[in-house]
Specification:
385 residues, alpha/beta, globular, disordered N terminus, binds zinc ion
Length: 385
């Protein structure tokens, strides 16, 4: 497979081509308007605004998603979500391309530099700490649902002005499910328990303050046996994460939920068909979350949804990589991705072509919800404010 635009071109030309192709496609299929100015949307003040952030840990490439040959894999993003969204076509990640450190960077709005496979907290304050401290919100109001046990410290930084006691509650669905099962039963759930795809033998140190099974069962009003019985009906870890997220929305209705999907990263196994299945499932789960937001009274009409991959994957042309399988080269395709923003106050069916950075998310959330993010390296995206 080859990409028509990335052979012999500079990163700037490649990025331009991606943006151009997306813009033309979107204009043709949705009639989306290009945002030519950064004037404010002029939205009314939304009372008790909530936000749901969905990241894909293990991003997908353009040719399997937004390019013509990939569009069949994301029918719901294209037909249902994009027409209601402001779509940023060039979101550049200049940080380390490992999932935990990159997702932590998305959550702090600063490029974190720690070892991706270390059980450490982010150095910069997280969005959860900014939110809770400035708006005086309780611990029950900010939640992370994380794909790997190695993400257990993502909810709270080590920053001395924030940190201890100000972070999010972190749910590790695989850990919860594992603790609900006997060793014999765990074999039946093997497909839901695999911790990460890049280093299958990596066994993260689980310290930190992640949620315990019985505590969560109580919050979700779900018995441990019902939880494990329902899990058996699910096809993947991401379905388990979204199940927990929806239950959390119904039972506790927190103002800030951060979900990291990770099924796509099965690409590391080299199985292209499983990678495509992961993209299609992510497409479906994003639509499920958006529909849940519309149907839950605590969320409908006052919730913004942001969806973005943590980064991309390698191109087919770079001799230092192996195409879709990994994200090791740091080439333009592996760094350039996209973001959708939806909900009250955000213009619908609008494309923003200018390059932005993944660290711009946190200050944007701060501007929407009313908190400062003084240690973020990003800038609020005025197109959605
Ligand atoms: Zn990966």
């Amino acid at each position: 497979m080859s990409s028509p635009w990335n052979s012999g071109r500079s990163p700037r030309q490649i990025a331009h081509s991606i943006a151009h192709s997306r813009r033309e496609f979107l204009r043709a299929t949705t009639g989306a308007a290009l945002a030519l100015s950064t004037t404010r949307a002029g939205a009314a003040v939304v009372p008790t605004r909530k936000v749901v952030v969905v990241t894909f840990g293990g991003g997908a490439r353009d040719q399997e998603t937004f390019m013509p040959e990939g569009q069949e894999n994301i029918p719901l993003l294209l037909s249902e979500l994009i027409p209601q969204a402001t779509f940023f076509t060039q979101v550049v990640n200049r940080g380390i391309l490992g999932h935990y450190v990159a997702t932590a960077s998305l959550a702090t709005g600063a490029y974190e530099t720690f070892n991706n496979f270390a059980a450490v907290a982010p150095s910069n304050p997280t969005v959860f700490e900014y939110f809770r401290k400035d708006l005086k919100r309780p611990a029950s109001d900010a939640w992370v649902i994380a794909p790997s046990n190695g993400f257990n410290r993502i909810g709270e930084s080590e920053h001395r002005s924030y940190g201890v006691g100000l972070g999010a509650r972190v749910v590790l669905p695989k850990r919860l499910l594992g603790s609900a099962l006997s060793p014999r039963d765990a074999l039946l759930y093997d497909h839901l328990l695999r911790d990460n795809y890049e280093t299958p033998l990596y066994a993260p140190d689980i310290g930190g303050d992640s949620m315990q099974l019985h505590e969560l069962a109580e919050i979700l009003k779900l018995s441990v046996s019902d939880f494990s019985a329902h899990a058996q009906s699910l096809a993947s870890p991401d379905e388990l994460s979204v199940y927990i997220a929806r239950r959390l929305m119904q039972q506790l209705a927190p103002s800030m939920i951060w979900i990291t999907l990770h099924d796509i990263d099965v690409a590391h196994s080299g199985a292209f068909s499983l990678y495509i299945d992961g993209i299609r499932r992510s497409d479906r789960l994003c639509a499920t979350l958006w529909r849940t937001i519309q149907s839950e009274p605590e969320y409908a009409g006052k919730t913004n949804l942001f969806i973005l991959p943590d980064f991309g994957r390698d191109s087919d042309e770079d001799p230092g990589g192996n195409g879709f399988q990994h994200h090791r080269t740091g080439d333009a395709l592996s760094r350039t991705t996209w973001m959708l923003a939806l909900g009250p106050g955000i213009r619908q069916n609008v494309v923003v072509d200018r390059p932005v950075q993944s660290v711009d998310l946190v200050p944007t959330l701060g501007a929407l919800l009313g908190f400062a993010s003084p240690y973020s390296q990003g800038k609020a995206l005025t197109e959605v404010l």
